[in-house]
Write a structure and sequence with these properties.
By secondary structure, this protein is α/β, with parallel strands linked by helices. The chain has a single domain, classed as 3-Layer(aba) Sandwich (Rossmann fold), CATH 3.40.50. It is about 50% helix and about 20% strand. The protein is built from eleven helices and seven strands.
Length: about 270
Amino acid sequence: MAGAVDEKALFERFSKRYKLAGSELLKQIERSNCGCDYGSTSFTTLDQVKNLGSMLSLGPKQQLLEVGAGSGWPGLYLAQESGCDLTLIDLPIEGLQLAKQRAVLEQLPGSIRMVVASGAALPFRAGMFDAISHADVLCCLVEKLSVLKSCREVVSADGKMVFSVILTSPGLSPADYRRAVACGPSFVATPADYPDLIDESGWKLVEQCDLSASFLDTLKLMRGNELRHADALEDLLGREETIRRLTRNESSIYGIEQGLIRRAIFLAVPA
């Protein structure tokens, strides 16, 4: 029950964030942090996204599904660059509304559709998608295995999935694991290591890459930007949310520097 309550609170926070994402202040901070201004809530930078299209073998007529798409980063960028068709799914409709506005503005070459749905129960036919991506989504959900299994059901036999995630470091003592969970996102704890979850859900792990160093750089840049604009952020977001953001960044920086948490990207194909 506690997990469900926490997920609901996180959902509500994301919804409020997307409602304000059009503000010039948040766009300015996001451009400095990640090189984009889509209203993103992940830590995916423009440099990282530029590699995703080739990892997923995207091109015209390819079908890309972005799970937990939020306001459309990086899915809209990948669709613009590759010409693929794009489906965005998420539960907060406010993020998808932003994504729709951006898609119209950028006149994407392929088709695009938005679906309000859970990643743990994807409402699509088996084998429908050539590629699936999700950015820092699983660390915000309890049902990690269900999401991975649902993605496996809707990908084609020769499809691919790429996802980034914040996770606890391997080999921690019980005490350090508790510290890691306290430093990370709300649902950073996992029932098993990600390679095991990938295998259990019917995928085969092809590649994994540690992004912790660049994640730390992004966090420090974000902390500096948010401290410089703290007064303006408080006017926009309120004191409680501004303090939460600053505290979250400090906690994550500590976790990375202490080797308690890390960020990684995984590439998998159907087993």
